[in-house]
Amino acid sequence: MSVPEDAKMTPSGKWGFLTKKVKGHQGMIIGSAIVISVIAIALLAPLLAPHDPYHQDLMKRLVPPVWDSRGSWEHILGTDHLGRDYLSRLIYGARISLLIGIGAAVISGLIGTFMGVMAGYFGGRVDMVVTFLITVRLSMPVVLVALAVVAIVGGSLQVVITVLGLLLWDRFAVVMRSSTLQIRSMDYVAAAQAVGCSISRVLMTEVMPNVVNNLIVITTIEIAHAIILEAALSFLGLGVQPPLPSWGLMVSEGKDMMLFEPWLITIPGVALFLLVLAINLMGDGVRDITAPENRN
Amino acid sequence: MLFYTIKRFGLASLVALTVSFISFGLLYLSSDPAIAMAGETASDADIEAIRKLYGFDRPILVQYLDWLQRALGGDLGKSYYFRTDVSALIGERLPTTMMLGVSAISFAILFSVPLGVAAAIRPNSIIDRFALFLSVMGQALPSFWFALMLIVLLSVNLRLLPTSGSDSWLHFVMPTVVLGYYAAPAIMRLTRTGMLEVLSTDYIRTARAKGLRPTVVLFKHALRNAIIPVVSLAAVQFGFMLGGSIVVETIFALHGAGFLAWESITRNDLPTVQGLILVFSLFYIVLTFFADLLNAWLDPRIRIS
Q1: pTM
Q2: Which of A101, A186, B100, B229 could link A227 by a cystine bridge, Cβ 3.0 to 4.6 Å?
Q3: Longest Cα separation, chain B
Q4: Rounded distance, CA B253 to CA B276, Å?
């Protein structure tokens, strides 16, 4: 009997197989390309930014971007109402968005994964408590609670990251709970328990590796979610505070002049949209590649 | 069914109680209401007097129970800023938000259910791809920015719609779209998945084999079954929308509960903020409670487990 051609593994093994799948997924490629560029821009901000993002020049307020007839190459994307270089602020703004997205997702991921895995693995009372906490969390209006807490405690990068991290763990908990529940009934988990592995060992070596794909997908969703929420909070004036170049704050500062200088809100908005879109495309890609059956 | 209803009701009440406790603790522990009330120019003695007068010097649990007792009777306290009853204030603003919420969820359903059905009839067709494209785009669009772009395009450039206020139905068009589009992708995807699943079942094949008209099979046999989970998703999304109305109402200056939330947050008006969190959560809890009951009624398997 001969093995069917496509059932043979490629010489490079598992990674070659994965690379092939990634190459066939357009969304994944576009998404990753944008995300990697934004990360690079954020890391290399001091080298890439043509000006100091905080330097005000009141003689050069509201210079339009270069494609406008009044624009110049000195300020490619123009300047804001305080004469600060818009491109430089946009570049430094990528740092804030990524920092908040990743920071909040790490905090909420730790909380949610812990709760979800515990609930799924132990079931019974633990599961009841966790399910109850998830319901409580879902019943609280996120934007309202986040705004209220930031208003009271005072807006700063750390506060926004912490507040969002403490609010966005619900999806992690829901998905980790159901994936762990599924893995828990597998024979290899029973085998590990029968051999006498400790609970933490079963969780780390048998359960976690099998739920990590789902974890990655949820992480991308929550990073995107946190970035959008931070922008909305900053836009309302109760997130990251000026003079930090948060994209949401840039839209908010440009809002009053949007009728005459619409590029002031278009540019940071497009940046925000592209980054969130790219992260979502990447997440969808990871899901399609690791679990094609969940695509619908 | 009765037992299930009682159980769900008990759970919903417990959730409501926990939410109220958490939000109370969150707001009152992270700030000093006496300082907020006295204002910035007050002396230490004034602050101390206010603390005694309003009972802020008592333990947090006592204060919470006191607040809860009055809240159960419909008294949410007095607003620091507006100097009126919080419940009356919220009651006055809620209709606008409800109207916005109802029109937004209707918009989302009317837009995404037909699109989801059309996408499911021909998977991987142009319509399916277009629906997927729209939902991916929609999920990445920040609502506050979308709102501003609509204002620039529709009000300023085309002069079609008013930008702010709540005088006529025209004022609700843009807020409805901005609040509704966010729920649309999820509803569309769930409709599509549900339809795909139902369309591949045996009873659909039987119905088709009997020679029933395709539209009858599609709407009477398939959609009726596929729509069940969509109903409860729509209820959940409606609950989320009221929470999201804060951004939309602030931008379009619609004087609803969301706008009130923003006003009271920026003025440190804790009783109003606390009352609004309670009302928004209660609304969500009641919605999911009825959605659960509806599901259990439509699908007996849920009741039993």
Answers
A1: 0.88
A2: A101
A3: 86
A4: 18
